[in-house]
TrEMBL record:
It holds the Pfam family AMP-binding_C_2. Keywords: Ligase. Residues 90-284 form the AMP-dependent synthetase/ligase domain. This is Phenylacetate--CoA ligase. Coiled coil: none annotated. InterPro entries: AMP-bd_C_sf, AMP-dep_Lig_C, AMP-dep_synth/lig_dom, ANL_N_sf. The keyword Ligase applies. GO terms for molecular function: ligase activity.
Length: 426
């Protein structure tokens, strides 16, 4: 498959990474105005993992400020703007969207990273891949669409269609792989049931999810797999960074494509590398996107550092459980650290719950939360009990009318924050 070629050579993965990193650093410190400033005076080359600490972190805040100071695209675009062929922007949930351009070569790199995702999911040229996604300015499945073609499989776009039309198209074209967000997969299954389409026995064999952490949450994954009678694979990527991670046949977490990315996991307070078994913030460096390089980027995603390799045989860094939270999503409710991902993991253990949302609010100067669900009355108490057991926190569960909560195709926004002091929101 070629996936692990690098590791098997005598050079070794680390040496390969650092050779590429030093090439990138040399290049960026000369030709990229954003990094020229940041890397000024830092002794190069970087020889080992500890040396990485010499390099400054890059943050989204910094990129946003740079883009404001140097409109419209900012200085991290290494080449003159006429060299760029792709435009994307972040969803801008916490401020202005960030504009990110790619040159032909950088975009080619993106596509190749997606080919690795597809290979890890066992997709072959015999597959017909259905992309249930509206192709807009978000990076979403754009690179997937082209990666599918590069692999030699058939790419069927499902943009600007209703869920019903998408289901019909999937069935009529005998699609074997479905690509969408985990929230949307659940929604599609709901619509299928409503209109009497039997997706459980349909041609769909695999689902590749992206855009939300759901695909790596066991309860979400199981629910989607049961509804579709298919196996689910997860993928993670970021507009600023690239398509960096994917799940494997073991399905219990994500691998980072270390051929193209250097992984660090840091304590967000001390900024030091965490120890095995500890949680920390994922920091990534991309090695092949010269049109928009990213060095020691603080992703804001919380992951667990595991030293042992995954039993699947892929030697790349394994992140058990995938992205377990967002640094800026964490809230403290009555002294307990809560990530929405952990709430969702519990809610999805109840397949009867069709949709939900989380509401944070302030009462008697205390931050509180409640969960609203669409589902049968009898599930309310069971869910409240399980939340209390798992989180050690009494959380109110409220039933709302069926169909009253929003369904999502893109990144789901299931949190309503009515707290007086939104301390952890950046
Ligand atoms: Zn694996």
């Amino acid at each position: 498959m070629g996936l692990h070629q690098v590791h098997e050579t005598s050079v070794g993965l680390r040496d390969f990474q650092f050779q590429r990193l030093n090439e990138l650093l040399l290049f960026a410190s000369r030709f990229n105005k954003f990094y020229k400033e940041k890397l000024d005076g830092i002794p190069l080359p970087i020889k080992d993992f500890q040396d990485l600490k010499r390099l400054p972190f890059t943050t989204k805040k910094e990129l946003a400020k740079d883009q404001m100071d140097f409109p419209p695209f900012g200085r991290n675009h290494t080449y003159p703007v006429e060299n760029y062929i792709r435009y994307h922007q972040t969803s801008g949930t916490t401020g202005r969207p960030l504009k990110v351009l790619d040159t032909r070569k950088s975009w080619d790199w993106w596509i190749q990273c997606w080919v690795e995702v597809l290979k890890s999911a066992g997709v072959t040229r015999a597959d017909r891949c259905y992309l249930a996604f509206s192709f807009g300015p978000f990076i979403g499945f754009w690179a997937a669409y082209e990666g599918i073609q590069r692999l030699g499989a058939l790419a069927i776009p499902g943009g600007s269609m209703s869920s019903e039309e998408r289901l019909n198209s999937m069935i009529q074209n005998s699609a074997t792989v479905l690509l969408c967000t985990p929230s949307y997969a659940l929604h599609l299954a709901e619509v299928a049931e409503k209109i009497g389409v039997d997706i459980q026995n349909s041609s769909i064999q695999k689902i590749i999810t992206a855009g939300e952490p759901g695909g790596s949450i066991p309860s979400v994954r199981k629910q989607i797999e049961n509804l579709f009678g298919a196996k689910l694979y997860d993928h993670v990527g970021m507009t600023e960074m690239g398509a960096y991670g994917y799940s494997c046949r073991e399905q219990n977490g994500l691998h980072v494509n270390e051929k193209e990315f250097i992984v660090e996991i840091i304590d967000p307070e001390t900024l030091e590398h965490v120890k095995p078994g500890e949680k920390g913030e994922l920091v990534l460096t991309n090695l092949g996107r010269y049109g928009y390089p990213m060095i020691r980027y603080r992703t804001g995603d919380i992951v667990i550092y595991q030293e042992n390799p995954c039993p699947c045989g892929n030697p790349y860094q394994f992140l058990p459980g995938g992205l377990v939270g967002r640094a800026d999503d964490m809230v403290v409710i009555r002294g307990v650290n809560i990530y929405p991902t952990s709430i969702e993991a519990i809610i999805r253990e109840f397949p009867e719950i069709k949709e939900f949302r989380i509401i944070y609010y302030t009462e008697h100067e205390m931050d509180q939360m409640k969960v609203q669900i669409e589902g049968p009355e009898n599930v309310v108490e069971s869910l409240a009990r399980l939340l209390r057991v798992r989180l050690g926190l009494r959380i109110e569960v409220e039933r709302v009318e069926d169909g009253s909560l929003t369904r999502f195709e893109m990144k789901a926004r299931r949190i309503i924050d009515k707290r007086k002091n939104k301390s952890k929101v950046t």
